[in-house]
Amino acid sequence: MTSFPIHQTELEKKMIPLGDDNKELASDDGFVVPKTNAFGHTFRDYDAESERKKTVEEFYRMNHINQSYDFVKRMRQEYGKLNRAEMSIWECCELLNEFVDESDPDLDEPQIEHLLQTAEAIRKDYPNEDWLHLTALIHDLGKVLLHPSFGALPQWAVVGDTFPVGCAFHESNVHHKYFKDNPDYNNPDYNTKNGIYSEECGLDNVMMSWGHDDYMYLVAKENKTTLPSAALFIIRYHSFYPLHTYGAYRHLMNEQDVENLKWLHIFNKYDLYSKSKVRTDVEKVKPYYLSLIDKYFPAKLRW
Ligand SMILES: O[C@H]1[C@H](O)[C@@H](O)[C@H](O)[C@@H](O)[C@H]1O
Ligand SMILES: [Fe+2]
Ligand SMILES: [Fe+2]
């Protein structure tokens, strides 16, 4: 177990308790958080006996063993070239039709369903924040890394919760025990609370485990999206449950991160709890999303 003496940065001391920071942004929402997922379990229950449990646990075993500092560095360099494809945002949504996420205990539907379910749910409650609708639609597009034309990366290098590398793995990471076989686990440069980072260095300076979040952030940024900084933050850290849901690693945040985290908390509710077996009528909502894509992105993007 990795436990540390309780010490808080000055910024951490000023932070509002988890879950209370989005009151000012909260809408008069009609969204009802369901008590159980499509399989009759509570959401994100990684211990519940279900058909998905084994697949999900094996996923995290592979993920925790292989996501090391060196691996992340190599992947960032390689995929940062954006030389794999040229296509529009919508074309990418359609590519996701064939993939099911093996890390997810709550959903076994193709990913395009999840994108539309999230976007439509948040659109209902925040009708005027069109940037948030589009952010929801694209937040998981990085899962295209599973596709053969993107190198058909294994699931452990694409999906699942994310965490910083280069410092100790916090115990709030699901299935934490599998980190023991990660090459960084016993490396003294990487296994202290701060590791290679300094307090309040800002998440932008932190190397996160490699996957769909960081990749889609890169794609959006390099293709010069006009989405606001909160949108890029949501895309980049939406799988960072250890931080946004369990409050770990907060000592690495700076003031800007604290601001952006408010929107991520709002987003997370829709990302997680809109997962269901109810399908969206793609053709019906497509024109609306095409108009948003046109507003915030070039017609073709480099991937
Ligand atoms: O299983 C899920 C899924 O892969 C999501 O796309 C990701 O954002 C979550 O953090 C993860 O736990
Ligand atoms: Fe995701
Ligand atoms: Fe998602």
Notes on the structure:
The protein has helices spanning about 10-15, 55-65, 70-80, 90-95, 110-125, 130-140, 210-220, 230-235, 240-245, 255-275, 280-295; strands at about 85, 300. It is built from 11 helices and 2 strands. Helix 5 (about 110-125) packs across helix 10 (about 255-275). The model has no long low-confidence stretch (mean pLDDT about 95). A two-stranded antiparallel sheet has the order 1-2. Helix content is about 40%, strand content about 0%. With about 300 residues, it is mainly alpha-helical. It has one domain (about 10-20, about 55-300). 1,2,3,4,5,6-hexahydroxy-cyclohexane binds next to loops.
State the strand order across the main sheet.
1-2
Bound molecules: 1,2,3,4,5,6-hexahydroxy-cyclohexane, fe (ii) ion
Low-confidence stretches: none
Strand tally is: 2
Q: How confident is the prediction overall: mean pLDDT?
A: 93
Tell me the span between the first and last alpha carbons.
Answer: 39 Å
Q: What oligomeric arrangement do these chains adopt?
A: single chain
Elements, N to C (H/E): HHHEHHHHHHHHE
β-strand percent reads: under 5%
Q: Give the fraction of residues assigned to helices.
A: 25-40%
| The number of domains | 1
Overall shape: it is globular
The DSSP helix count reads: 11
How does the helix and strand content classify structurally?
mainly alpha
Radius of gyration: 19 Å
